[in-house]
Specification:
mainly beta; 374 residues; 10% helix; 2 domains; globular; 6 helices; Neuraminidase
């Protein structure tokens, strides 16, 4: 007899399958039509997100414009086929939120929201033509995208929005795309600082966090800024040293509740970097920080786009960067650094690229889920 014959369907769904990790549940999808249908059930997806054991996997955006898993639970590359051209979609930027990946390719006017666990995708075209004058006629123009979630007041399900930042000559314009209504609108908001789009940004509890620069101070001060997709408002978050001036910065997420920052202060030793972890982020509590690791590697962070991941319990950090090898200055090299509790640093060479890369390598946490895009 099968499980569905021995136990009521509601019990199997709400008390057993809801607690199975997403990657394991995916392998059970072909068991029967009922279980396969759960992958398209928003109510089950929400219950699964709340109850299931979370898997924190390490993913890496490689120099081949693909996403590769560094975790044994999810082996190999995660490929994404562009249905418009029937070719592999190249990825230069990726942003993770609730098991969904927002992927874009620089110079190609398409982006996609993708759930690698369920295979669901939502393809979008960049709304470039409306703002072409801002970008092409203005030196230094840039566009970046982030993904966040909010609680729908009617259904109480999680819904998703894309925030688009158009930046040119220290001017900033924000637009929001709501996936549910398939519509863009301009936001009348001012973060009162300059978001540092060329440094890492992350999602935690549905909000997006960036480094930002407050240029109203005599010496420009680096701070953290969050964006709430429910209220469409920015808020400031303090760093370990609120008045520090930093040369190298990177941002990461630890588990489901904490942020981590990699910093190199200008007044510190030239090669010394610090890794800090916050207390659990709660809008009703003040953010505090604990320094867990110190590393000494002068080459780390020479190029913009350093990324890192932290295992707080084991006191280990993985740092990913690109740079130029002393033996061959004509190629980009991708490096992975491992920093241990004794501050010992190990370097792993990921190989060279013979062409100039549109992106830096990116390490990020990925939590598989059954989250529904639309």
């Amino acid at each position: 007899m099968t499980m569905s014959q021995l136990l009521p369907d509601k019990l199997v769904e709400e008390e057993i399958l809801c607690r199975v990790p997403a990657t394991s549940l995916k392998r059970l999808r072909a068991t029967c039509k009922l279980w396969n249908g759960l992958f398209n059930n928003r109510r089950f997806a929400k219950n699964h997100f709340d109850k299931s054991a979370k898997q924190f996997l390490f993913l890496m955006l490689t120099k081949e414009y693909r996403i590769r898993s560094l975790s044994v639970e999810l082996k190999g590359e995660l490929g994404l086929l562009d249905p418009l051209h029937s070719v592999q979609f190249k990825i230069t930027h990726v942003f993770h939120c609730d098991g969904l990946l927002l992927c874009t390719y620089e110079g190609y006017h398409r982006l996609v929201v993708w759930n690698p666990c369920t295979g669901q995708t939502k393809w979008l075209n960049h709304p470039v033509s409306r703002y072409k004058g801002y970008i092409t006629n203005t030196p230094g123009g840039n566009i970046t995208y982030t993904l966040g979630c909010y609680q729908d007041k009617k259904s109480h399900n999680s819904s998703y929005k894309i925030l688009r930042l158009v930046e040119w000559e220290k001017n900033q314009r924000f637009e929001i795309y709501e996936i549910k209504s398939d519509s863009w609108r301009i936001l009348d908001v001012n973060p009162d600082c300059i978001l540092m789009y060329n440094h890492s940004s992350v999602s935690l509890k549905g909000k997006t966090y960036w480094f930002a620069l407050d240029e109203k101070e005599l010496d420009p001060v680096v701070l953290l800024v969050s964006f709430d997709y429910t209220t469409a408002r920015f808020a400031r978050v303090c760093l370990p040293n609120p008045y520090g001036i930093y040369r190298i910065m990177s941002l990461s997420v630890v588990g489901e509740e904490k942020l981590s920052v990699l910093l190199r202060r200008r007044d510190a030793l030239e090669s010394e970097i610090e890794i800090w972890v916050s207390n659990p982020i709660d809008e009703h509590k003040v953010v505090s920080w604990s320094k867990i690791l110190v590393g000494d590697e002068p080459r780390l962070g020479l190029c913009r786009g350093t990324s890192f991941l932290v295992d707080e319990e084991k006191k280990i950090a993985l740092c990913c960067d690109r740079g130029i090898c002393n033996q061959d200055t004509t190629k980009d090299y991708f490096f992975l650094y491992i920093i241990g509790e004794d501050n010992e640093l190990t370097q792993v060479d990921f190989g060279a690229s013979s062409t100039w890369q549109l992106h830096s390598p990116l390490l990020f946490n990925y939590v598989p889920s059954l989250a529904q895009i639309q």
